[in-house]
Amino acid sequence: MLMPHPAVLRTLVDEYEATMASGSAEDETRAQDLAYTLCVSTGTREVTRALEVALGWLAAATAADATTRRTTDGSRVSTDDGPRVYA
Questions:
Q1: How far is CA 42 from the centre of its chain?
Q2: Which of 14, 10, 25, 11 is nearest to 56 (CA)?
Q3: Mean per-residue pLDDT, 66-80
Q4: Which of 1, 20, 39, 68 could lock 76 by a disulfide, CB 3.0 to 4.6 Å apart?
């Protein structure tokens, strides 16, 4: 299964949570669109489960970022040879 890039996933989660927190009727359609996109992105059918999966993937991506180091030219080099696939 392809995984969305962590930055894209973080944006979806943040936008969904902000839209749900607003509680305005205008945001209802946007919340439904974001819920659908989260479900498709995580391979789930319920937004609650999609958020759980997304947050788990984001935590894993953050942990993976911690295994990189900066080189003298500012680029990042992985210190972990584990596979990472982002769509």
A1: 9
A2: 10
A3: 59
A4: 68
Chain length of the chain? 87
Angstrom CA distances, 41 to 9, 13, 15, stand at 8, 11, 14
Residue matched to tokens 């999966």 = 53
| Owner of token pair 């500012």 | 74
pTM over 0.70: yes
DSSP letter for each residue of 37-79: HHHHHHT-SSHHHHHHHHHHHHHHHHHHHTTEEE-TTS-EEES
Res 77: pLDDT: 57
Read off the tokens for 28: 């209802």
Question: Locate tokens 């946007």: which residue?
Answer: 30
